[in-house]
Predict the 3D structure of the following.
Amino acid sequence: MKKFIAAGLILITFSVSLCHAQKADLLTQIEAIAPESKGIVGVSILNIETGDTVNFNAHSRLVMHSVFKFPIAMTVLNLVDRGKYKLDEKMKIRKGDMAAANMYSPLRDKYPSGAEIPLSDVLGYMISQSDNTACDYLLKKIGGPGVVEAYIKSLGVKGIAIKASEADMASAWEVQYTNWGKPADLVQLLNILYHGKALSKTSNDFLLKIMTETTTGPNRIKGLLPKDAVVAHKTGTSGTNDAKLTPATNDIGIITLPNGKHLAVAIMVCNSKADEATRDGVIAKIAKAAWDEYGK
């Protein structure tokens, strides 16, 4: 924890809030589940159709890790909509573009010498499989983290900071803290996506599709939901240091409820001393509590 505080990059504001017709017992459940993480839990839940909102530490700056691939994808697709790229356009990914061996990259593993694949596939690798080669390739191609941050802010979402690539974060422990997001702002961005306020219908539908096809974090938001539950989501996971500190275990997304309504949720576990199963379980339990409350 000492390193976390010294970094001075994450602002934690322990707070809860009630908005609209929020069910108080859901907030009580979240408050009871959060301590299991042995860290900091931030939650924002929005019932998209009714506007009901549950916030628990939702305005804290929490480490995103691969959650930042969601705003990167929105930025790339905005450029597609503006005519700079096409989804079927071939992207030439060279051997030198491949992520380092210690970084997760199914794309590199499949094409170690490089490949030419459609932009749609690169986006699929980045979102559905959380591929680090795809992420840094696209981030570099569009002009770097600043371009993404500026685009997201242009949508009116202020509580997301994107300063570093995946390679940057892998280079030094402290760098990961420069990419932070407030759960409430991430939910705001999900709500913008759901309502199609930023992208064309084609781009919007495509992004929701590849988010629904996400394979990472199966024990998080989806962990305790019915097997056929539809969740369009993006996970984020950091490493764990020698002190057993894990800065980020996250999952954000849009849940389709059995009653046809939708929840935009961001559940983030920051600076946890718990093991992976416990961290995932905290996210799963909170998501299930929201499902039970709003799916009635």
